[in-house]
Amino acid sequence: MTPLKILFIGDVVGSPGRKILSQVLPRLIPRWGLGLVVCNAENSAGGSGLTLKCFEELIDAGVDVMTMGDHVYRKDEVFQVFDKSDRVLRPANYPSESPGPDLALVTARDGTPAAVFSVLGRTFMKPVDCPFHAADRMLERIGVSTRVVLVDVHAEATSDKMLLGRYLDGRVSAVLGTHTHVPTADEQILAGGTAFQSDVGMTGPHDGILGRRYDRVLSATLTFVPSYFDVATGNPRLNGSLVTVNPENGRAMAIQRVSIGPEDTQRILTGALAHPAPPVPPLSGLESPG
């Protein structure tokens, strides 16, 4: 069976994030042989929330599943999105009464079944149910329907993300972090065969403060006068993580950080592809280390 390549795209911020994703992703899907594309979309509408228009832009670009985070309900239109699609996910450790689906069971482009869900961390964030128990509940629901499972852990604390990665090691294909908007250099395959990265970074403008205009953030910080943190515009980058999975056992075979900036985008658009996908190891002999 052919390995499954999953591209997980970090927090899409505003129109600059949507634009670079829409430019690059349709070309990466065939060139990298992507079977599944997941992105965190909770900041895609003006930097906070998701609208129907933004949802449609991301779908048209080739995104298969969208995870959300603590800004899931910032835009009222998200409820229309929930009515339209079951592939936009609220955090699984929100209360059961919370609107929106918390689990996506999908079929990749090559026919491989896969599951996606997200959980919120609890350190430095608003009170929320236990992400570890929520993950257990999701895995019980997934059951034997698929071995390929991707988890978005949307959290402030690196320790929260690392601990969840270890907790789920061997039970899911990948645990990938979002929320801090800063990519980490700790991508690895854990002992049980789960790909992990503390944060895959932000897809959006990098000339500001986590996607917001520098001058607005600085003014509010220095004067304590509230200011609207407009989305920045310059140096748009697409950040994410490319994970190759053995669909037969759900174990990760490879993980690579992805960071595509303006110059890379131009090369991709003109056919001189930057960031070639990593070589895929053979499917035979894929037992996890240890």
TrEMBL record:
UniProt GO molecular function: 2',3'-cyclic-nucleotide 3'-phosphodiesterase activity; metal ion binding
UniProt keyword terms in alphabetical order: Metal-binding
Coiled coil: none
Residues binding Fe cation 2: 42, 70, 154, 179
The keyword Cell division appears for this protein: no
Signal peptide: none
Pfam families: YmdB (PF13277)
Catalytic residues identified in the record: 71
Residues annotated to bind Fe cation 1: 11, 42-43, 181
Top-rank taxon: Bacteria
Protein name: 2',3'-cyclic-nucleotide 2'-phosphodiesterase
Organism: Paludisphaera borealis
